[in-house]
Amino acid sequence: MYYALIFAATVLFGLQFFFNKLYQKGEGDGISSAMIFAFLNALVCAVEMFCLNRFVFSFSLFSMGVALLCGLNNILYAYSSVKALGKADLATFSLFAMLGGMILPFIGGIIFWNEKITALKIICCLLIIFALWLGTDRGSGRKGAAKYYIMIFIFNGMSGILSKLHQSGDGHVTEQGYMLLSSICAMAISGAVLIYLKVIKKQKIALNKPGRSIPSVAVYSVISGVGNLFLLIALSHVDASVQYPFVTGGTIVVSAIISAIIGEKPGVRKLIAIAVAFTATLILIF
Fold this sequence. Notes:
The chain has about 290 residues and is an all-alpha fold.
């Protein structure tokens, strides 16, 4: 059952990239557009989780503390994403983001939560790293891009570690309640940044194409919210060192399928990378 939840989340994460791309295509990659995206994403997710939590606001000091860290991490990730994309190509950005999302929770699960390290887990991670490297068209980033690559790696990985921390702690609220708290924190932080940009920096805070961008954010947020909720539920029963490599490998496969559906034909290198990633995910199951 829990592997089914992880698989469903993986499919949803593959779909969310399409709607993120739609938003960025209309609004650009400036800091203000990133903060608007973060604010709207958190707002929709908060409403979604409040409904899924049966209109109950759950609270505990432990969950609030982790949620605040999660909200801050999400904003730092949004900021570093904008800076990285301004200096390098999307493929290299995706490479570091996916590696961080897999490696840090894998290491954290073993070191901090005493998850077993096995030969199959190591083989799976090595295969996925190879698949990411093989399937990425590496462009030439401009000077200063390296530090943003590192930030992307860390902040995307920290998201998984914070999720595991919350699910492993005592006195935590429900998964929906935690995501509601995280969304509220992200709204508060991104809202404060937008006010700063508007009042202090005198920047224009508005969407270029609200008719397309708002629905794109809404669909992205619903998909992302449900996917992350599934992962939180599964984390109480599946090791982080298993779950996140599975998600990374699965996302490679799902993204390739979506690309094929919309008419993008993968080359030989990417087809091999997809096959390697698919093999790696099967290793974790069987």
